Amino acid sequence: MNHFLHFFRSRAPGRDPALDAFIKAATKGLMTCQPRKSFPNICTEEKRALKELKNNADIIIKPADKGGAVVVLNITDYIAECTTYYCKLNSDTSKKYKKVLVMD
């Protein structure tokens, strides 16, 4: 918004009185604009429940792979799922794959 106001302030006044009046009124309106007061979209009980879930060390909350949903898993199931898809390597393979990526 500062760039917008700078554009109008840097313009030489006096070319068009109607335009100058509009610029003055618009600038004043923008400078005196107060942010709207925001209101929570959840009740106190829901906010407390979310905080409790967030602080619970026995679960993990993650976005789902598809669909924009949220998944809540107990930590044991989460670790089991991770070890299904990922495994520990015996050696560092980053140099090998770095060469392949640079060549492509």
Automatic annotation (TrEMBL):
<protein>
    <submittedName>
        <fullName>Uncharacterized protein</fullName>
    </submittedName>
</protein>
